Amino acid sequence: MTTETRVDPMNDLPPEEPVPVMQQLLDNPFLLLFLGVALPTVLYVIWGVMEIVNIPVAK
Amino acid sequence: MAVNRMFRTCPSTGLLFHEPAEKLMKAHAVAAVVSLLVGGILALGVTLTRWQAVHLLSPDWFYLFLTAHGVDMLVLWIIFFEIAILYFASSTLLRCRLATPGLAWVGFWLMILGAIMNNYAIFSGTSSVMFTSYAPMGAHPAFYLGLILFAVGALIGCFVFLGTLVVAKAERTYNGSIPLVTFGAVTACIIAVFTIASGAIILIPTFLWSVGLVEHIDSLMYRTVWWGFGHSSQQINVAAHVSVWYAIAAIVFGAKPMSEKVSRGAFLLYILFLQLASAHHLLADPGLTSNWKIFNTSYAMYLAVLASMVHGLTVPGAIEVAQREKGYNRGLFEWLRKAPWGNPVFAGMFISLIGFGFLGGISGVMMGTEQLNLIIHNTIYVPGHFHATVVVGTTLAFMSLTYFLIPVLFRRKMLFPKLAQWQPYLFGLGMSAFALFMMGAGTLGVPRRHWDISFAGNAMPYEFPGAAWLMMALTALAGLAAVVGGAIYLLITVGSVFFAPRVDVPDFKHVRAAEGIAPAPAPVAAAIAAHHPNVGMAGFVAPGTLVLAMVFLISFILYYFVNWKYLSTVWPLS
Amino acid sequence: MSAILPPEDRVWWKQPLDRVEGTWVVIALIWCLIMFFMMPYWHVFGKQNLANEAYRTTPEVYMKKAQDMVDKFTVRTETDQKIPVVAPPAGSDVYLVARLWSWWPILELEAGKSYRIHLMSMDWLHGFSLQPENINIQVHPGYDHVLTVQPTRAGTYSIICNEYCGINHHTMSSKLYVK
What we know:
- The complex is a heterotrimer.
- By secondary structure, chain A is mainly alpha-helical.
- Chain A has helices at 21-26, 29-53.
- Chain A starts with 20 loop residues before the first helix and ends in a 6-residue tail after the last helix.
- The relative contact order of chain A is 0.07.
- By secondary structure, chain B is an all-alpha fold.
- Chain B has helices at 19-50, 59-92, 101-123, 141-170, 180-210, 219-253, 260-273, 290-297, 299-325, 334-337, 344-367, 381-408, 417-443, 466-499, 526-529, 543-568, and strands spanning 6-9, 16-18, 510-512.
- In chain B, helix 2 (59-92) packs parallel to helix 4 and helix 11 (344-367) runs parallel beside helix 16 (543-568).
- The N and C termini of chain B lie far apart (66 Å).
- By secondary structure, chain C is of the alpha+beta class.
- The mean pLDDT of chain C is 94.
- Chains in contact: A-B, A-C, B-C.
């Protein structure tokens, strides 16, 4: 990204220290958006609708 | 296309406002407050009707009022305010121009149009179907269409927010990661997108059904998908008001999050799991298996509850650390005793935090436990719970933020400052008592959304115990106190914004942010920057907060098992 | 004002956890797991659980089953509307009909015996609320929900509707006798 070449005056960390994966995830709103919509859609909506569809018909 | 890059700096806080964003924030805040005014008048009618001794409204008006109260408060007031918060958390906190202000205005007017259309349908008397509008009970098509238009407008607001994040990153208006409060707003925005998507999946077919284009809407399917919208919309509030707590702690105390990792991790748990709690409403429904119910109702093993418990600790913990560093370091609670209880921004925020945790949080977990739901489902315990979360939690947090925004955003002097000092106490404590008495009545079986629990004129009435009637009367009295508190808020807010003298800004000038170069964030005081400050007791930086958290946990555990005990006495069911 | 400013460190994920936070996260997580496992525990060892037994059906089919039961087991009628009071044998299928704005028929059960109670609505959503026991179950149109219920104490109970079902919602109440 754009931060690699920039010298950051605010802290002493060497700029080349890699950003941990979890921090990269938390810094990426669009990846979070995907997860935050996909997870409840699958676990709540799709699973729930499948169960309703599979309710047996009374004899 | 010319891009407006006009900014102003707030002289008292140093916040940077982008002018088009500022106008949008004001418009959304005003629309929110107008909705609150309408919803508040309706609340008075509802609470005075449920007080059996007064029984103000006829049944048709009662159900009409209740429907409109639900929509105007749960949707209009809160979502309008939240869009303003999204713009504040992106444009103002990132010191960045707002992306596509023109589109944002389209979103705003769609929301206004939808709000008016929906309210028109309700007040015409054809759509007293409650906020939930459960099919196959049908409302006027304008009821659904209004909600859909409102949701589309809100969705546009979400995308303007996300667009602003992109602009800020591209134009490097900040270094590194976005602020924690903005991250909380991202959380709220993501939940809002899921909410609106669920709403679209169910409300569009229901609208088509109401105009005769769709044959049949399945009641169970409706409830399942609708609650993806109805409950998640309240989860937007949780993310938003937790962000507001962090913001107020930062604004009032200069408090720094105890650790970015923990607070952001907790928000991540919200993003992943909070929406699953829509299943809370379906625990007493047929056809959905216990596997689905247990997994979803517990937010996948209560991971979102864990997140709330973390925020409930880190917000007061951050305040405690900041206070101790200012010298209020004696004993467990000097930091709390010496807090600015006369400042409505802090007082409201703290009551919101305590009320949300102790009343809203604990009761929410009770109702959301698969089996315990049997003794709570659809009783007035349910509105008791959500008045503790949405009103004491969200609304009071937003009110506190308003007291900060009147001078900063609206640049007006606050009218009636003495009255403002009392407002959070009257409203917060009144509403907490209101919620508590409703939960009491619900435990005795009093139903929600019910015009007459005396069953007068019925061949086979049920006689509720005297305690239930007493609880309903106390609910109404506490409700009246809260309505007065709400009216004071409206008086102060509307009075200040429209009639108070302007705040004079001698060195006010427009700042032109040169393209691509951002001002570096202001350096933070060295004492706060040190990670292990020399404060606290026994190796804990925030011992008082930990003690409070333990009190919370013990109340939680006791109340949890009291409910299981109560459940074990009712008829065996399988 | 640092919650409203970007974090000072470029890499903040590696900051060590504070002791207060660490302690609390561990305690809270344990409590969350206890609450989670209480639900499956109660399915195995507890007595109050909703079965997952439900069928998709139509009002006509359901009404016919209810009518057959009423024809067989009616012991008397009550009120001006001559609502049948039905005393079905223990262990049998008992059909309760919810409709705008009444419960039909009135049931008379025996304490200590168990019954397969069916709940279904003929029209809109209703809420089965047994008072003062305070058992509350959602009643759907088109879904026959089966509960195996064992009344414990003799007495006269009430069934009220606690899902809003239109203008006369508050008049929807009935009795349930346990001998």
